[in-house]
Amino acid sequence: MQALIAGVAEPIERQNFAQETDRARLSKVALKAFRRLVEQWGLTGQQAAALLDVSTSTWERLKQDGKDKALSQDQMTRISAMVGIYKGLHLLFVDDMADRWPGLTNKAPLFARMSPIESMINGGIPQMLDVRRYVDAVRGGL
Asked: End-to-end distance of the chain based on CA atoms, in angstroms?
């Protein structure tokens, strides 16, 4: 993407999670957001760990004292996708359905009769990004 400034196109630097300094700076906030999402969606420790692609014991450590640890690029991407889903659901639904929807069995082809949570655990980052696009499309945000 480029921005037009005084008739000159300048590249816009996109946020990414490749640099450890960026990840270290953003990890504390990302973990806080993910912990809140886990609570709001009523996820088990095992589900939260699976969504982050870490062991349950690693999730428990991150939950307790992960404030000073830089998350990996993969973990930051996973959290970013899920926070986008969370936000999209809260724009789409005005009641508790926003937090119940991820755990409900879904007949849409994307979910193969699984809940969005189960489908994201099974499909990893590509499925998380697809679920985010799906939620954005349903709410008319595309």
From this structure: 18
Angstrom CA distances, 75 to 4, 52, 88, 138, 141, stand at 33, 6, 20, 26, 25
Residue 1 has pLDDT above 60, yes or no: no
Does residue 18 or residue 82 have the better pLDDT?
82
> Using CA atoms, how far apart are residues 132 and 39, in angstroms rounded to an integer?
19
pLDDT digit string, tens, across residues 93-103: 989 999 999 99
Amino acid at 44: T
115: which residues sit within 8 A by CB, 6+ positions away?
102, 103, 104, 105, 106
Q: Are 41 and 102 in contact (CB under 8 A)?
A: yes
Measure the CA dihedral 131/74/37/25, to 10°.
Answer: -130
